[in-house]
UniProtKB/TrEMBL annotation:
Record-linked Pfam families: Phage_cement_2 (PF09956)
Superkingdom to which the source organism belongs: Bacteria
Name the UniProt record assigns to this protein: DUF2190 family protein
Native source organism of the sequence: Vibrio fortis
InterPro entries for this protein: Phage_VT1-Sakai_H0018 (IPR011231)
Amino acid sequence: MRLSDGKKIVATVPLGGFKKDVPCVVGALLVVPNFTAAAGDTAVCYTQGHFDGPIKAGDSVSFESEAAYFKNGEFTKTQPTESGDVSQAVGVFIDGGVLLTGGVLTEFVT
């Protein structure tokens, strides 16, 4: 696992677009854009967080990704449903790895 602050991603702005300083959820990432952009525009973004997996030259990284949950010591794309499990996403699967969002775990299955 390594810190990925400053890794550049060029991606297409998702449906709904971005509004400057208005937080939005993109996959399992909380995004706070510093610009306004329409859906379909190309945006240059920088990731912040911890990344477990490869981002290297030539990878086609995009915001089209899936939420990453953590259960039994493994990352999974299936949301846990058993009592006591953490039900919130802890990151997002990107390019064969998981970008951890670093949020406080507050959502549990009861």
